[in-house]
Amino acid sequence: MPTSTPTRDRILAHAERVASRDGLDRLTIGRLAAELGLSKSGLFAHVGSKDALQLEVLRRAAERFRDAVVRPAARTERGEPRVRAYFDGWLRWAADPAMPGGCLITPASFDLDDRPGPARDFLATAQRQWLDTLAHAARVAADAGHFRADLDAAQFAFDLNGIYLGCVFAERLLGDSDAEPRARRAFERLLGDSRR
User: Fold this and answer.
1) Which H or E run includes 185?
2) For residue range 30-52, what is the model confidence (pLDDT) as tens digits?
3) What residue numbers bound the domain in which 88 lies?
């Protein structure tokens, strides 16, 4: 990965906003150069090819997700409080005003799911790590007595991911203003089922 510079950081921040709103495929060297007032060759020198640019945007988004969601939640009490902190942070992440189109990781997951390459590989790894993090938090909650001892932690993570995806779908595509309250109710039901 090239060294961080103020210009490179500005390019990637803008590219992340564009990808959030328009999708990774709409990121082109020419478009970004024009929007940022740079030459194509100058922009290329900072980010490389379109494929390299997409990968760097995903890396940047994943790092911002860790900073906004994972690290703050990891400082909360282990067990159910941490599970709640992960979910609350995740919903805040999806509504981040810095990303005009919302979380770019979710649509990129669908865009890249059948397109082999480094961007897909990176995204699949990052998503597996996130699901593992959620499952681990559920196992710790079970060990602490917050959830039942026989909880299937991988299923819990799967279900929680489904709640998040349903919320994003309802908010972004359907314009459902009740999407987040519905997601929170579904989350509470999942927690209740995890305790029994």
Assistant:
1) helix 179-195
2) 889 899 999 989 888 888 888 89
3) 59-195
